[in-house]
Amino acid sequence: MKTINKEKEVIGSLIATPDLYLSVSDVLTTECFTDSNCKDVFIALSSMVNSSRKVSMTTLGDQITKNGSNALLTDFVGSLNAGDAFQEHCLILKEQEIKRMHIDLGLRLTALGSDDREDAFNTNDLLMNEAERIANSTGIGSEMTNSQYLHEVEEMINKASTTDGITGIGTGFTELDDLFSGRQNSDLIIRAARPGMGKTAMTLCEALFMALNENKKVIFFSLEMSGTQLFQRLVSVHTGIDLRKIKRGELNSDDWDNYHAKVDQLKTDNIRIVDNLFTLNLIRTKARKVKMQHGLDVIFIDYLQLISHKVDKGRSKENEVSEISRSLKMLAKALDVPVICLSQLSRAVEQRGGTKVPMLSDLRDSGAIEQDADVVEFIYRPDAYDKDAKDEDGNSLEGVALIIVAKHRSGACGDVELFFNKRLTRFENKRELQQYVEQPPSKMKPSQSFNLEDENDG
Q: 369-400 burial by CB neighbour count: b if 16+ within 10 A, else e?
């Protein structure tokens, strides 16, 4: 049967039984039809069903005329029922539409590739954007029943009852896990701070804990530091060897013994560092590929404002960041993993008086970050601004690091207090300062604390 006949069969069935439209509305689009009359009838019928208007031969004919079309319903009298073949015909029309999209994209790429004036990198971005659009257009929605939703809820309740309430991926920071129940799939988490507060440091701690202690597949996109620099830090984190010694080759015999005893664990493929991708399209493509080929549980990105994304001429940096944050949220949902993305704060923090505690309005370049994120958390260390900072009771705030949860779509906000060891540049779970001073830890496991180089690095 020719495609045009299948189009008429589908339209005829919809005319005879308009309720069928709801069962195929996620498959059929206007572009599935090549015949102008079929397309005009589909436009009129779909608009009526979507607006809950009753569809009959009379009302549908009136709507077609109102739309300015000359399509005649009498042309479909011989095709009013495709019977059991209706669903199959709809899928065939969708397949034909996708093939036409493939051909169109191929012709466009051929023309652009043959034009010496065109930037090959721009063409590559176009290719990935269009490929993603076409791939997404093939999805046929599958709606879960209420029973299936309840089953998932019950599974989460049972899991929480046996894991101290942790239903997501643990971070290694106890109070943070208590607040979020672990990092949750499909969440976009924005971690923001001014330079020198320890964004990269804390994020590497979390990533390593997930990879080694939670046995999760982690990918870390580094747009600022090289993979070698990050891995030097990971070696220091995991072994407890001062990073300066590693960089200068000043390891003594005890350091080397410690290195050889622990470093093999870092050969795991649970953590993957990617330092050569800088565009939004390449990051999304890489994440999808890793998820498909090797499995992927969590994505880290350092950091948002360094991601490159082409926008139309005349559009601002804020527009670009808005599109990036929205795309990262969609990536988290599509891959069903947490995406933890670092972000810079504006200089307004330093310019205002008072404690300089970050606020949501300080998120740099775009208010869309706040809108798209499921969680927004700030790192704030009072002694970074005032080494003699004290709390309301007069206690020293030296070493206190506050994780300020300013937005939490699925729960409460609040502050989580961690301890920041300046000597080792290490974030730890909260502890009494006096206990720390009297009993300084020498070598800590990744599940307890993490060691990085100096506090001025992200």
A: bbebbbbbbbbbbbbbeeeebeeeeeeebbbb
Radius of gyration in angstroms for the set of CA atoms belonging to the chain, rounded to a whole number: 28
Residues of the chain with pLDDT under 70: 1-4, 78-84, 136-144, 310-317, 353-354, 364-367, 422-425, 431-458
Rounded CA-CA distance 271/293 in Å is: 15
Distance between CA atoms of residues 406 and 287, nearest Å = 28
The angle that helices 3-16 and 86-113 make with each other, rounded to 10 degrees, is: 130
Tokens of 422: 């300046």
194-205, pLDDT tens digit by residue? 888 888 888 988
Distance CA 238, CA 271 (A): 13
Looking at the chain, the whole-number percentage of residues with pLDDT higher than 70 is 86
**Identity of residue 349:** V
CB 348 within 8 A of CB 362: yes
According to DSSP, the residues that pair with 415 across neighbouring strands are 404
Q: What is the 3-state secondary structure (H, E, C) of the chain?
A: CCHHHHHHHHHHHHHHCCCHHHHHCCCCCHHHCCCHHHHHHHHHHHHHHHCCCCCCHHHHHHHHHHCCCCCCHHHHHHHCCCHHHHHHHHHHHHHHHHHHHHHHHHHHHHHHHCCCCCCHHHHHHHHHHHHHHHHHHCCCCCCCCHHHHHHHHHHHHHHHHHCCCCCCECCCCHHHHHHHCCECCCCEEEEEECCCCCHHHHHHHHHHHHHHCCCCCEEEEECCCCHHHHHHHHHHHHHCCCHHHHHHCCCCHHHHHHHHHHHHHHHCCCEEEECCCCEHHHHHHHHHHHHHHCCCCEEEEECHHHCECCCCCCCCHHHHHHHHHHHHHHHHHHHCCCEEEEEEECCHHHHCCCCCCCCHHHECCCCHHHHHCCEEEEEECHHHCCCCCECCCCCECCCEEEEEEEEECCCCCEEEEEEEECCCCEEEECCCHHHHHHCCCCCCCCCCECCCCCCCCC
pTM of the model: 0.66
Tokens found for residue 237: 């984190």
pLDDT tens for each residue of 431-446: 544 343 433 433 333 3
Instruction: Please pick, among 31, 130, 132, 224, the residue that the annotation labels catalytic.
Output: 224
Q: Is 224 a catalytic residue?
A: yes
